[in-house]
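Saturday, quiet lab. Running sequence design on the structure tokens for the scaffold JK sent over.
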């Protein structure tokens, strides 16, 4: 056990390697990126749930039958009315 204590004491006296110099910055950057990913996933989940709710509600509600009128309500005398028909 004394050998282990001696090795740990010697290891504690040695300078840290150059790989450890920017470790804190890299870890904090990774944590921030992970938080951003979680927020994005929550946003996608909320959008999907909202789309499901709106789609289900729209299909469950009795609606009026679709009309054959143009979507923008172009008058029948308009030249572009011929293109829509």
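Result came back. Writing it out in full:
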């Amino acid at each position: 056990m004394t050998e282990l204590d001696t090795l740990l004491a010697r290891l504690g006296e040695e300078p840290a390697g150059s790989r450890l110099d920017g470790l804190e910055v890299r870890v904090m950057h990774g944590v921030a990126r992970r938080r951003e990913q979680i927020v994005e996933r929550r946003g996608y989940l909320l959008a999907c749930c909202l789309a499901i709710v709106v789609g289900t509600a729209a299909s469950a509600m009795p609606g009026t039958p679709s009309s054959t009128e143009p979507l923008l309500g172009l008058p029948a005398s308009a030249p572009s009315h011929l293109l829509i028909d």
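Notes for JK: The chain has a mean pLDDT of 81. The chain is about 65% helix and 0% strand. Ask whether to fix the surface positions before the next round.
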